[in-house]
Write a structure and sequence with these properties.
By secondary structure, the protein is α/β, with parallel strands linked by helices. It is about 40% helix and about 25% strand. Strand 10 and strand 11 form a beta hairpin.
Length: about 350
C-alpha cells in the first residue's frame, strides 16, 4: 500500500479542518475538489499535492484514485455526490470513507456490500460525528444486552453548524422523520416524539426524534430492530419542525429552496467556538423481557470530533486495517473506537 489518501471536497469547512489536523499529524493527503483556486491555495498552505476535477470527469477521477489507497469524501450533499465516488472506488479497488449523516447514503452504500466485497474494497460512510460516537455507543449497549430489541440514542451538541450541514438539512426539509421499526426504516412525522433527556453533569434538555444516520447504521452494527434517535432543539426549532409537517412540500420547491439556501451564512464555528464546544450522548437499550441498560458519553465539539475520528480511521485503513464490504465504524473497529479520541468518556449507569 502507498499509505496515501485523497481528501475530496478539501476546501469545504469540514474538509479544510481535516486538512489542518492532517498537517499537524505530518500526513500528506492529496487534496481535491472542483474549485481550483481554493484547492490550490489550501494545498500550497500545507505543502500538499492537489488535483482538480468534477465527479463526472471519470478519467480524472480514476487517475486520481490510482495514486492513493483510499478516499475521505467530504463534498456534500452526499445524497448527490457519494454514489459516483463509491462506484469509482469499487471500480479502482480503493477504500471509501465519507462524513455523511444522510440515511439514504448509508442505505445506498449498504446495498453495494457485495460489489465492494468482490472488489476487496471497504465502504464506510459516516466516519465523523455522525456516526462514529453514536455507533460506538450503540455497539457498547448491544454488547451489554445482547437480547436488546429496542435502542434509543440521544445527543446534544454545544456549537453552531457549518454552511454545508445547514444546506443539507435545508434540502431535506419537509421529508419528515424516520425511525427503524421491526427492522425496517419507517417514515414518521418531523419531531414525532419529544422527551426530557438527562445527559449527566446536570445537563437536562428536551429532545425530539430526528432522521439521524444511526436509524440506518445502528441496525447494521447491532442487529437491534427498533431504533429511535433524538437530538436537543430549542422550542422555536421544534415548532418549525412540526410546522414542516404541513408546509414541507412548499419549502421543498425551487423558489423557497433558493431563498432558504441564500440565507445560510458561509463557514462554520471558529476555532475558539470549537474549543469551547462539547457533545453529550445518552443511549438506552431494552429487551422484551424488561431488561435494560443505559450509558452516557461525552466528547469534544462535533466538527473537531469529525476531523479526529476521520483521520484516525484513515490511518487505520492506510495501515492495512480494514474489512472489505459495507462497514460501520463500530462494526469494523469496535465499540471503543471513540475512546481513542482525547476528551471522550463513557459511563454505564
Amino acid at each position: 500500500m502507498t499509505n496515501r489518501f485523497l481528501i475530496y471536497g478539501a476546501n469545504g469547512y469540514t474538509g479544510e479542518l481535516i486538512v489542518r489536523y492532517a498537517a499537524e499529524r505530518g500526513l500528506k493527503p492529496i487534496l481535491a475538489g472542483r474549485n481550483e483556486a481554493a484547492v490550490k491555495e489550501l494545498a500550497e498552505t500545507h505543502g500538499m499535492e492537489y488535483r482538480v476535477f468534477a465527479l463526472d470527469d471519470t478519467a480524472k477521477l480514476d487517475a486520481a484514485l490510482q495514486e492513493v489507497d483510499m478516499v475521505l469524501h467530504c463534498a456534500g450533499p452526499f445524497s448527490i455526490t457519494s454514489r459516483p465516488m463509491v462506484e469509482a472506488c469499487i471500480r479502482n479497488g480503493k477504500q471509501y470513507t465519507d462524513i455523511t449523516g444522510e440515511i439514504s447514503v448509508f442505505e445506498t452504500c449498504a446495498a453495494m456490500d457485495k460489489k465492494a466485497k468482490d472488489a476487496g474494497v471497504m465502504v464506510m460512510p459516516g466516519v465523523g460525528f455522525d456516526v462514529v460516537p453514536s455507533d460506538c455507543l450503540a455497539k457498547h449497549l448491544a454488547e451489554r444486552l445482547p437480547s436488546a430489541t429496542h435502542l434509543t440514542l440521544m445527543w446534544y451538541g454545544m456549537g453552531r453548524m457549518s454552511h454545508g450541514t445547514q444546506s443539507t438539512m435545508t434540502m431535506n426539509v419537509g421529508r419528515g422523520g424516520a425511525v427503524r421499526k421491526d427492522g425496517n426504516i419507517t417514515p414518521v412525522p418531523a419531531a414525532w416524539k419529544a422527551r426530557e433527556i438527562d445527559f449527566g453533569e446536570g445537563v437536562v434538555k428536551t429532545g425530539v426524534t430526528i432522521p439521524w444516520g444511526d436509524v440506518s447504521t445502528a441496525y447494521h452494527s447491532t442487529g437491534i430492530p427498533n431504533i429511535e434517535v433524538y437530538t436537543v432543539a430549542p422550542p422555536s426549532a421544534i415548532k418549525a419542525m412540526k410546522m414542516s409537517r404541513y408546509l414541507g412540500w412548499l419549502l421543498a420547491t425551487g423558489p423557497f429552496q433558493r431563498y432558504l439556501q441564500g440565507k445560510i451564512k458561509p463557514g462554520g464555528p471558529s476555532d475558539k467556538e470549537r474549543e469551547k464546544g462539547r457533545t453529550f450522548m445518552r443511549g438506552e437499550a431494552r429487551d422484551n423481557d424488561g431488561n435494560s441498560v443505559t450509558a452516557l458519553q461525552q466528547g469534544p465539539e462535533g466538527y473537531t470530533l469529525t476531523a479526529i475520528a476521520a483521520l484516525n480511521i484513515a490511518e487505520k485503513i492506510t495501515g492495512g486495517n480494514f474489512k472489505p464490504g459495507y462497514q460501520t465504524p463500530a462494526s469494523a473497529y469496535g465499540a471503543n473506537l471513540i475512546l481513542e479520541i482525547d476528551r471522550t468518556a463513557r459511563q454505564d449507569i
